[in-house]
Design brief:
Length: 647
């Protein structure tokens, strides 16, 4: 396929030869260049890129003003792996004609090969603008954004690729992974920069509720409410969690409190209807649900599943049976029965999400932007979104926040995420943007990964991804099982083997982990994460001198792993009587000291070096952190933070 593209480009080169020295000279030059092009085409057709490059090099020497000649020479250098010359040649083609697609694309690819995504991105963006439906442009642009840690833009590019190649499981995995990375990035920013914000407490509560931990979620909801200005729907979401624990009276109270705040949260009305169902009034519940669904069926479809654990199967059956009776007597919309059945079906697959371009309005504009708030208040979230969506690029402040809210409750998570990205760009609304992007991107990630699983459920990458999810949740045995499956399917997979080794080490299977890790280092001796794991395993065995050489090869670690590297190096220096160096390294690793253990080690080292005052200060801080850690453990015994200090 690529060879045919190169040949097509060669035949399209214009040869307008202008020469003041006469027609004969012009004809001779023209004939020489055409002969060289013919030679190049023949060489390309048989895969002899070296000879083709030689012909194109002679052609550009004769006609240096023709950009297509430079582009083809660059493609030959690219095929030959001569990156330096390819880059220079593509740059010359672009200087002569910036609208040529091939040099923009392949120059970006060359910069990606040299691990320089910042240099690659402008050229790949230009290539994507020139050919919006080119798969290679979309995929390489997504890869560049991923390498540059711009997960939101990577997701946008992979969304384009998923539309162009809807049956490619890897593209869907990459899309889901990009969304998950952005969720992680946003969560990290929320907890580090806005730790006292009610939005952080609310997001923590939602996460705990999703994980089936209602008691811990209740504590987080109460923290958000105690802030004095909880975000809209906090009371309503707390009510949903209380319903799950069968605390119906308090749940009803929270739904009423939500209504009193004036937030117009649709979840409060939905919750009141479910309370009636739980209390044995399916007719009253159905009447309310019909009214809510008439205003916005998409809201009911996307939000009613939140109540699945709050109602019994008998209660659901009575509601659906009654809805079918109402349908027969024409007093309810035709689809209400199937809508309710789908919403309450716990075995139903996640909703399918349209990953189309969010810049395009999703429907007819039904109202001016000024009326969007009244549509929101009436529970018409899709119409509210459609009123604001055409102005996504220009609105700000409250309207942008309203667009994110309405889009999310309408089940349009792409638009909600896009609005959240703009909210993030303003300091005044940054935490709200992080919150809505977290929620929306999580929905998008689940949908993308579900599609990937449907296409290729048994791919090694899918097993690695599932292992990563289990590892984040500290479900070590499940993670080990998934990584083992990935390795059995692809025994040469470096990422699967490293992830398996890390998990085995976490499970205290140190020898097994070290054996796998050493096999990885035999293949890639300078892999920083594999070296870090080897050092950690050897430190655990008190083999400090053996660990130090591995630590010396950890120079290119990810930034989030550097504190752990310094803490390990501190241990090695302390064990080998290099006290000042040990203290210095331990201090570099303090950001990972959640339980006070590193401060404790620093305190002991100060004691050994005779600095009593510094020792006492470090030990006091160690005691404080230890107390904080123990309190957190008592509050959420199975929800401890993932240890991100390890690779």
């Amino acid at each position: 396929m690529r060879r045919r593209k190169l040949l097509a480009l060669a035949t399209a080169i214009p040869l307008t030869i202008l020469s003041a020295s006469g027609i004969t000279a012009a004809q001779d030059l023209d004939q020489t260049v055409r002969s060289l092009l013919a030679e190049a085409r023949v060489a390309q057709s048989r895969g002899d890129f070296s000879q083709a490059a030689g012909a194109y090099r002679k052609a550009v020497a004769l006609e240096p003003s023709v950009p297509e000649l430079w582009a083809n020479l660059g493609l030959m250098d690219h095929e030959l792996g001569i990156s330096t010359e390819a880059i220079q040649t593509f740059r010359q083609a672009i200087r002569l004609n910036p609208s040529l697609f091939a040099p923009q694309l392949f120059l970006g690819i060359e910069y990606l090969k040299s691990k320089n995504p910042e240099a690659a991105i402008p050229f790949l963006e230009k290539a994507e603008q020139l050919k919006p439906d080119d798969l290679q442009a979309a995929l390489n642009l997504a890869k560049a954004y991923t390498m540059a840690n711009q997960a939101d833009r990577a997701a946008d590019a992979y969304s384009i690729a998923s539309r162009l190649t809807p049956n490619d499981g890897n593209t869907w995995i990459n899309l889901g992974t990009a969304y998950l990375q952005e969720v992680e990035n946003d969560a990290r920013l929320m907890t580090s920069d806005y730790s006292h914000s009610a939005y952080v407490s609310l997001r923590a509560a939602e996460t705990l509720a999703e994980e089936g931990k209602p008691l811990q979620a209740a504590n987080a909801y109460q923290a958000a409410i105690a802030s004095g200005s909880p975000p809209p729907c906090t009371h309503a979401e707390f009510g949903i969690t209380l319903l799950r624990t069968r605390n119906v009276a308090e749940a009803r109270n929270q739904f009423e409190l939500e209504k009193k705040t004036g937030s117009r949260c649709g979840l409060a009305a939905l919750g009141s209807a479910v309370v009636q169902l739980v209390e044995g009034d399916p007719a009253g519940a159905l009447t309310k649900l019909i009214a809510i669904a008439m205003a916005d069926p998409g809201f009911v479809a996307s939000s009613l599943p939140l109540f699945r654990d709050a109602v019994s199967s008998d209660q659901v059956k009575s509601l659906i049976d009654l809805s079918r009776t109402r349908t027969n007597d024409r007093s309810a919309p035709l689809e209400i029965g199937s809508l309710l059945a789908k919403a309450f079906d716990a075995d139903d697959t996640p909703e399918q999400i349209e990953f189309s371009n969010v810049a395009r309005p999703s429907g007819q504009r039904t109202a001016a932007s000024a009326s969007a708030r009244s549509l929101y208040a009436a529970g018409r979230f899709a119409q509210c979104r459609d009123a604001l969506k055409p102005s996504l690029a220009t609105i700000g402040g409250d309207q942008l926040h309203l667009l994110a809210t309405c889009s999310f409750y309408a089940g349009d998570y792409r638009t909600a995420s896009a609005a959240a990205q703009r909210l993030k760009s303003s300091r005044a609304s940054r935490v709200q943007g992080l919150y809505w992007e977290c929620k929306s991107d999580q929905k998008l990630a689940i949908s993308a990964l579900t599609r990937a699983g449907e296409i290729d459920a048994n791919s090694p990458r899918m097993h690695v991804l599932l292992g990563d999810v289990f590892r984040q949740k500290r479900r070590w045995e499940d993670a080990e099982e998934q990584y083992t499956k990935a390795v059995s399917l692809d025994p040469k997979s470096h990422s699967a083997r490293l992830s398996l080794a890390i998990t085995l080490f976490t499970e205290l299977k140190t020898d097994e982990a070290l054996n796998i890790d050493r096999s990885l280092l035999a293949e890639e001796p300078n892999d920083p994460e594999a070296n870090l794991l080897a050092a950690e395993a050897l430190v655990q065995k008190n083999l400090y001198s053996e660990a130090e050489p591995y630590l010396s090869r950890c120079g290119n670690l990810k930034p989030e792993l550097m504190p752990r590297y310094h803490a390990l190096l501190g241990q090695v220096y302390a064990a080998t009587d290099r006290l000042p160096a040990a203290i210095s390294e331990y201090k570099e690793g303090l950001s990972t000291d959640e339980d006070g253990s590193i401060h404790y080690q620093i305190g002991r080292l100060y004691q050994r070096s005779g600095d009593k005052s510094a020792a006492e200060e470090a030990l006091r801080e160690s005691k404080r952190l230890r107390h904080q850690w123990d309190s957190r453990a008592r509050l959420t015994p199975d929800q401890m933070p993932t240890d991100t200090s390890r690779p």
